């Protein structure tokens, strides 16, 4: 079996008046870059990358740099192909676009392997510790009215958070970092009041704060019984992460903006994090994500993958979650704090909710891991064509 062709599909869905904001940017659209690898036997694999910012540079990188290296190669030689791609781009692509491009290709190669062997990816990666994973709703972003007058939006915020719990979620991650700290504290307190004390609550700043501000709000998060504080400071602030971890009595999480095991090694050896969050579509695909997990286990750091993008990204993250060992290992996986969770963004996302022939659902707080061959999902090509910007 040989690789016959590699095609990229840039998808965009304008959100109109449903746009939302994090501390760093506006989201006027949902976008993603899908990768399809075709073989000479007719087996095709799907992957995803280009989830952070514009997908055009990633598509160009795939088409002009990586595709010529892969045509004619055996798609089952996944480790060999990963190393060939990485060493081929090491001088100019060890971070960001180059690794994102590799990630989408690697996911597609594992999808091909699963279809070839008629096994889900999780079996090829060594088996499943679990067949379902706790889903946490990511929501309570900023809307236009939040910035203009946050007090008027507090009731809407409480209603939104309560709606996620009513929908079956038992864990919720909310956004901070755009408003003054005192205003953010009011938002957090309102949400905790709305969902109650039994809900696992997490807070994501998207690296909005300097160290002393992150420490100040982190002390308040302790009072609110927050499980983890995600990206409190910028990714480059290694010392800030380490010191916050030593100072605060809650877990510090980060890693969605890091790439490959070499980047994660710096975070781990400097004792920066309690939880690392590799994104399968950005950090190097399945191949590298398993290496990152192995590194994390050596440092006794928990892995909870970041997930953003279409249904392909979610399927890949679920396959990965199946294979992550509990940390620490227990006879029965009863404590959610010791187990991986899957991020389930609750903003409008047709690329996740309509793109696949079968939709993911949250039942009793959990998302079922697909057990079909490869990623275990199929693309609805008519939906893909509806949102296609570039092929």
TrEMBL record:
PANTHER family: ENOLASE SUPERFAMILY, MANDELATE RACEMASE, MITOCHONDRIAL ENOLASE SUPERFAMILY MEMBER 1. PROSITE patterns: MR_MLE_1. SUPFAM superfamilies: Enolase C-terminal domain-like, Enolase N-terminal domain-like. Its cofactor is Mg(2+). SMART domains: MR_MLE. GO terms for biological process: amino acid catabolic process; carbohydrate catabolic process. InterPro entries: Enolase-like_C_sf, Enolase-like_N, Enolase_C-like, Mandel_Rmase/mucon_lact_enz_CS, Mandelate_racemase_C, Mandelate_racemase_N_dom, RHMD-like. Keywords: Isomerase, Magnesium, Metal-binding. One of its GO terms (molecular function) is magnesium ion binding. It comes from the Bacteria. Residues 154-251 form the Mandelate racemase/muconate lactonizing enzyme C-terminal domain. This is D-galactarolactone cycloisomerase. CDD domains: MR_like.
